[in-house]
Structure formats: C-alpha cells, structure tokens
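re: that chain from earlier
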Amino acid sequence: MAAEIHPRPQTRKPVLLSKIEGFQDVVNTAVIIPKEDGVISVSQDRTIRVWLKRDSGQYWPSVFHTMPARRFSYQEFVLSEDYNQMTPARTYQAHQVGVTVVLFVLEMEWVLSTGQDKSFTWHCSESGQQLGIYRTTAWVSGLQFDVETRHAFVGDHSGQVTILKLEQDNCSLVTTFKGHTGNVTALCWDPVQRVLFSGSSDHSIIMWDIGGRKGTAIELQGHNDKVQGLCYAPHTRQLISCGSDGGIVIWNMDVTRQETPEWLDSDSCQKCEQPFFWNFKQMWDSKKIGLRQHHCRKCGQAVCGKCSSKRSTIPLMGFEFEVRVCDSCHGSITDEERAPTATFHDSKHSIIHMQYEPTRGWLLTSGTDKIIKASTCSHSIELRISAEPELRIMCLWKTFRSLSMGSFILWRKNSRIS
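^ sequence. v structure.
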C-alpha cells in the first residue's frame, strides 16, 4: 500500500538578501544576531567580528577581537548594547587538544563541549566550574541536547551517535547507534517530534525516531558531497541541509516516509536464478558464467544487472535521485510515489557552516570563498523574547592539521522564548 502524502507547506526558493565580503581568511562560522540586522563571524585568522547593516544596505564591521593562538579552550564575551565593544568575560579550560563543538543550554546554565582529545565535558556557565567529563571512542564532530530529558546526542568520526543522560555532576550511557559509513558531520534535534537528524561525509542524512522507541531510521539521499549542516524549521516541518558542493536541500518532513529495506543475501539472482560469480557449483552445473550482484533499492532483493536495468526515484524512501530498482519494482512505483519531497538549490559557494533563523526565515551560509551569504527561504513566524540586558558570545578555538579554526555559539543572557 502506498504511503499517504500529506499536503506539504509552501516552499520558497532561497533568495539572496546580501553578502558579507572582505575577509582575509575562510569564515568557519557565522550567526545572525537575534532581533538585529547584524552578524557575528569567526574566521581562520582567529578574528571574531561583529557586522551591522548600515543605511546603504551593506554590512560593515563594528568591532572585532583576535583570539590567542593555539589555545585549547573556549571563551565567553559580553557585547555592549551598541555592539561597539566586546569584553572577555571567562575562559573555559575544557580540553587537552582542539575544541570541536560548543553548545550552551540556557535552561540548565550549562556549557557543553567536545574536543579532539575524545572527551565530552560540561561546565556551569555561572561559576565556570567543570561539572563532568565523558570519554568518547573518537573525536566528536556533532553535538545536540534535549532539555526535557537531559539527553546529550554526540556524533563522532567513527560514524557513531552516542546518547548520554546528563546530571549535575555525572552522566550515564543510554545507548549508541550507527548507520553512516562515514563520519558524522552534523546533528539536528527536533524536541517536538523527538527526532534526531544526522548528516555524514558519506553524503547521506538519517532521521532517527528517538521518541517512537521503535528503532526507526529513515535515510535521506539528496547530496552529492559531504553534508555540512542541518537545520529544522518546526513551524513548516522542513529540514534544511547543505553540502560542501554548495547544494542546499529543503526537505518536506510532513510526509509519511518509509524505511529502506535491508539488502538480502543470495548466491543467485532472486529474479532469474542466474548464479553470481562466486557460486562455482551452480556455474559448473549450469555451464553458465557467473554474474555480478546488485540490489534493488525498493525491495532489497539480490538481482543481476539484466533484472535491474531500470532506474527510478523513490522520494518516500529518501531517494531523491534515480537509483537501481528491479524491473518488477519499477513497474509498481506510481507517479504519486515518484513525486519529489525535496527542493534543490545552488548556493554558488562551497558551504562550511549554515544557520537558519526561524523568526525571520533567514538562512546564513559561510563558504570556502571567504564570503557570508544571507538568504530568505521560508515564511517567518513571530516570536516574543523577554528583556535581554546583555548579549553574550561563547567562542571556541581549535587547531587541526596545523590549521587554526574558530567557531562559536551565541545567546542573550536571561532570555526566554515564549
């Protein structure tokens, strides 16, 4: 029975609003300042810069700070109300080698971080005290946190995702799961649907149904290169992903998706029964040359090339590009099942980092071309944010392969979204 397709929200093509240029080095991270026409960037030249939009419509630098070289720590800064002064507030000595990810949890007043020393730590943002540490099997490249359950989701370079239960001064291992053949490059958590999205260097995205407790894992295949960033828009139920090839994909997640089948093992084609090339006995008995084995992406059966000569998209299984299917499955796939569930867009630069700001529907990308691009790609919704006496930045510094890179997170102290 075909899966039901719900009406999907209107998707608008990302429209470029402005560019920020003039960087001396590659921009590793850039974020939009909440409720302001401003952007904060961190570059490989160790500079943190605040950019404000002027009357001309162009972004101009307001203030910058240079991070110290080869510091395996992250720093907290306070920005003045006019964004013309950046004051260091605290330095967190969290790791022995480069820091890879920093995440601030406002509700808990925790700062979570991971490093190339294969450790995951969390600190109290009020006192700066380290609360706990957990050793991972590989250095971590993705980190998300669920406030309700206090679960930390840690993705590493082995392709594994680890779920930890955090307490004030200790943590416990909940479970681990692995579905990628490459390293995890990005994680995104939807606390409403209780779904975790993971992107990888193997070009794939996996949607893990954590809340359903059934172990469901849905694959999304829509990139031709490494997945660099993931963002989720809960009000439209759309997943936004970007790749190092410059591709931006907007996925409609308001559909009933299907798991891809497991590939079956067989010594002969499960359609025509011709032997595969390692089945010497059947080859000898039938006096036939063995064939190469393939698999149908829809049913998972082991088939030969002649019985799987057709190609088709299967969007509800996550295959937005044409893939190999057996002849019988090709005939059973309806036009409705071939209807795309994602739109594809070219950012025209190799993306390193992406941020989606749902309040205004802005998409910010930074690339290897030393340019930040601000685009609008979705209908915005209105959020109310309470009094915000000061803006704080958490900035990390990391060194990898003798190349210095910076990244940061941003929040407004004592703010709550209602």
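The chain has two domains: 15-257+341-412, 280-338.
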